[in-house]
Amino acid sequence: MYVELKNIDKSFGSFQASNDVNFGIEQGKLIGLLGPSGSGKTTILRMIAGLETPDSGDIYINGVRVNDIPAGKRGIGFVFQNYALFRYMSVFDNIAYGLEVQKKSKEEIKDRVSELIKLIGLEGMEKRKPNQLSGGQRQRVAFARALAPNPQLLLLDEPFAAIDAKVRQELRSWLKDMIYKIGVTSIFVTHDQDEAIEVADEIIITNHGRVEQKGSPLEIYKHPETPFVAQFIGQSTILEDCTRLNGFAEVKPGEKAVIRPEFINITRKDEVQKYISAVEEGTIEAIAYRGSYFEIKVRVKGILLTTTAVLEDVYEIGEKVGVLIYRLYIFDEDNAYLLENKAMVDINSVFI
Amino acid sequence: MNKKRHRKRVIPGFGLSMGVTLAMLSLIVLIPIASIFVSASGLSFNEFIKVVTARDVMSGYQVSLSCALTAALINCVFGVILAWILVRYEFPGKGVLDGLIELPFALPTAVAGIALTSLYSDKGWIGHAFAQIGISIAYTKIGITIAMVFIGIPFVVRAIQPVLEKLDKQYEEASHMLGASGKRTFFRVIFPEIFPAMLTGFGLALARGIGEYGSVVFIAGNIPYETQIAPLLIMSKLEQFKYQDATAVALVLLVISFVLLLLINAVQVHMSKITSTSH
Amino acid sequence: MSQTNKAIQQKSTNSNAKGVKVLLISLGVIFIFIMLVIPMIAVITYAFQDGLKAYQEAIFDPYTIKALQLTLLATVTAVAINTVFGLFAAWTITKFKFRGKQLLTTLIDIPFAISPVIAGLVLVLTFGKIGWAYDFLNAYDIKIVFAVPGIILATVFVTFPFISRELIPVLSAQGTDEEEAAALMGAGGFNIFRKVTLPHIKWALLYGIVLCTARAMGEFGAVSVISGHLRGKTNTLPLHVEILYNDFQLTSAFAVASILVILAVIILILRNLIEYKAKKAGEK
After folding, report:
1. C98 and C12 share a domain?
2. How distant is the Cα of B279 from the closest Cα of chain C, in angstroms?
């Protein structure tokens, strides 16, 4: 493990920001720390950086315990949420700052800064001040500044939070490409699950100061290990009682279920049904246009479910439709597991 | 009533409040100020130049300006230190220290003047110690400067304090993450941020120092060509009923203060262009 | 183990910072002590250097009492006039849009920026023997320069912007939404001011009044120019201090000064109290 956190506890007054946090990160990976606000993800990042001190527990980077090493000497690059570019310095001076601190020669600094400016595609803007840059350009400068001293680990705090939705998409893939190109181990914090799923090799989900689960985006999506993760990931709705639904009779009392739009398929009454025993009858209650698809609310046996339909399928409110529920996440206080529709499993087909 | 004019403004009462404001301002401030120009116009250009370039007047300007500048610079140094410790550190007695900063505003200047004079005269508590090593403070430019430091310090501290309070900690953290020492972080990252505020305080302290009378006049000793300050020259010309001469001296003093403030303002406009995000 | 780790870490990373902290705090405290505290102690000490009896004699001297009365009169008048002006000016500047607003703000600040001696000078030039208003005033037998009205006028002049300066930032931060809402419901100007605006600026107004009081009672330069030093007639406390000091009646001078020191300390405490309350009320 390249970065390792062992039994980390941290409190701010009565607020417990980290509660026995343990995880390890392999070299060269791009890790997303994902969680709702106040879940302690930024605190973890800041403790790795050395901007906060854990109350107890150990942090190792490349096998060395870094608790006692000051932030500036850990060899970590840090990109701040609002970039914290030095407002009175030019783009060049911002990127050169960390190199000046290391007392590099003028030529070395010039070469390295030019190289980075080229990398981030801001040639010709060396002399500009941060206020003369767009949000995306500022982020690129912050990225270059953090990378200039060749850090072995790059930490990014909500790197896309301050950027317009339009540019954000483009910047995500840019940042991902850059990090792979440079090969630096990176951890970024986000509260946006789409962002984490899209950008990260591995996701660490935090909640109430604890690490809930760590794994690849697909693993987390398909095999949530805790009730929190099951509810947090995807566009989840909780069903208090799902035993009424066809194919889920074996769910025990006290267990709840999480359902997502993509677990549900609706079909017209007149279409040929493949899983006739599994299909329920539902009534469409609401249809909302969402740009590239319809969001449809359909009531099945008194339960209101949300699903989607492609724009070609036009339904009407009040229309009776066939509803097929492929699977549910079943969870109680401690556990979560995926349950396929039993009425469907009989016939040997795979739907994802 | 004239309803048409009122319709443009939603909140009523514009006419009345504007009227009262302008009337009071004119009566108490503007009309008297205008007198200075009326009075100055009674002097021919040559007479005017002769008055303001007289040896005692020139030396008065020089004393007022050089002491006020020195004092404002000293206040910048201690103003930054005081604002810094009041914002960034916790220590016993901090509240009292914070509350004391405004003392020079609250203490009548004449009281400050006689207190400082007695302290710094060669027989005073502090002056005594310096007299033994051959330095006189009261009745020299050093004394004048000390009085100006006294009256100027709140301007600088109170200008910097709110800026420092609002300064985003991320700038410092970014600097630390890049390995910079506390010293480098302060001078390269924090200082540029508080510089415009410091300049405001510097300008206010400087203007106050140049115009100050009560706290300075006692400690100055008013030795002709040495420690006579410009406001005192205005005063003595008035006592000799040379009204137009007094006006001429005052007018130049006003112009000097005005130009200095304009210069400082220009620097600030330049600085704020760098940080404004109107782009 | 973790305890010792923490201790070591604190030492290694913070010992330098701690040294700087101690150094800076010491510098700041010493500076304030020498520059501000010692002079106050000096006034009190000198005031009592000839014993309590001499102190009492200086304080209860008829001239001192007269000077105190004039100081109070000038201060109360200045605060009253400037409060009226401050409220009208702040209301005008922050609640309405009009051309020349910046100019108006600058003009109001003039007395703050000019030397008090020049403030006195302009009043003498206007109302004194050579002043153009002199003949008119003389015809009605009104005397301003070298008389009590002049003292009051000078005090009003130098403290003129003090209250509006405190009110304007608070009012402009507050915007005009609430007033506009009230106006749309049909409320009149005075009603809006009293019910909607005033509660927001209560503390700022008090704060301004305290600052204005401090400056008014201590004003020296402008008052000195216009008073003509008629002892007992146009003497304020600060002027009285000067006269005593220049007469080498040092103990008396410091005794009278000690009254002003005590007033200054009271004002300082009030100021901090109000600032604290205003912060709590979210005005500042």
Report:
1. no
2. 24
∠ at Cα A13 (A12, A16), nearest 5°? 55
Confidence of residue C5 (pLDDT cuts 50, 70, 90): very low
Spatial contact of A303 and A289, defined as CB atoms under 8 Å apart:
no
pLDDT tens digits along C139-149: 888 888 888 99
Nearest CA in chain A to C12: A68
What CA–CA distance (Å, rounded) separates A39 from A211?
A: 9
Q: Residues B40, C131: contact at Cβ < 8 Å?
A: no
Domains of chain B: 60-278 (1.10.3720.10)
C55 and C162 fall within a common domain: yes
C-alpha A325/C-alpha A320 separation (Å) is 16
Residues C116 and C26 in one domain: no
Enumerate the residues of chain B whose CB falls inside 8 A of the CB of residue C25: 85, 89, 91
DSSP secondary structure letter of residue B187: I
Closest residue to C8, CB basis, from A56, A57, A68: A68
Identify the top-confidence range among A3-7, B261-265, C169-173. Answer: A3-7
Number of domains in chain C: 2
C-interface mutation test, from A6, A10, A52, A56, most C Cβ less than 10 A away: A56
Domain enclosing residue C152, as ranges: 51-283
- Which residue in B20, B25, B112 is closest to C107 by CB distance? B25
Does C214 contact chain B (CB < 8 Å)? yes
What the block records as the tokens of C31 is 């500076």
How does pLDDT run across A73-99, given as a tens digit for each residue?
999 999 998 899 999 999 999 999 999
Contact A68 C2 (CB under 8 A): no
Pairing of β A185-190 and β A153-157:
parallel
Q: Which of C157, C16, C82 is nearest to B29 (CA)?
A: C157
Quote the ipTM score.
Answer: 0.89
DSSP A72: G
Q: Chains that contact B by 3+ CB pairs under 8 Å?
A: A, C
